[in-house]
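User:
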Amino acid sequence: MTSQQQELLLEGKVAIVTGSSRGIGKAIAIGLAQQGANVLVTGTNPERTKAVSEEITKETGQQSDYYIGDLSKEENVAEMTDKAIQNWKKIDILVNNAGGGVILPFLEQTPETLKTTIDRNLWTMLWSCYKVLPHMVEQNYGRIINIGADSVRNGLWDHAAYNAAKGGVHAIVSGLGREFAKSNITANVIAPPAVEGELLDDIRDRDTKLVNRYIDIIPIGRGAYPEEVADAVVFLASDKASFINGQVISVNGGSTMQ
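Assistant: Predicted structure:
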């Protein structure tokens, strides 16, 4: 074993990262693998999701597999969980990153867009926790890390429906953190602001002024880079964060403080 291998934070761990075919999720999946974890990548785009899994194995040497499916559906999450168990016999880390939603002024939302936003953010997280936690309890170890949103705190324009969903993503960790702490399981949230990349660029193409307003509230003067969010997730997934539980941690460049 080399000295570099001995320094890996997550050697021998198994992680599921939902919504990891691009953006923050991809950066998180790669970051966990770089620190020694085997990773199940999930997404709804088969080509992109498979490509990320293959990239992880090629670039890090860690084992990786992938699952394709809509994780707002219980049966799909059950299949995802079973795949990780079949591959590696355990699940140590669950990162609930699957999300997104329809960003519109609240009264321009429709019943369909509201349901889509709740499904993508809240139900994916709830079902994933519900299916993965029994395995963590059985092994007396686990790290649950939800990707929330700093907009829950700063009231970002056109984010009321999105914040309703992400508010639940934030709130669950206090309940899970207390309920499962004696099983050596922690639950926390990383809450980023606007994140640079494909999704923000899509909004920028539609409404540059709106994106500029998002960035203007960040004192550092830019959105977060996906790797900056991933670094925080890697830390929470490691034993160095064993006493951090039930917390919402903003990685936001100062867009909200305290």
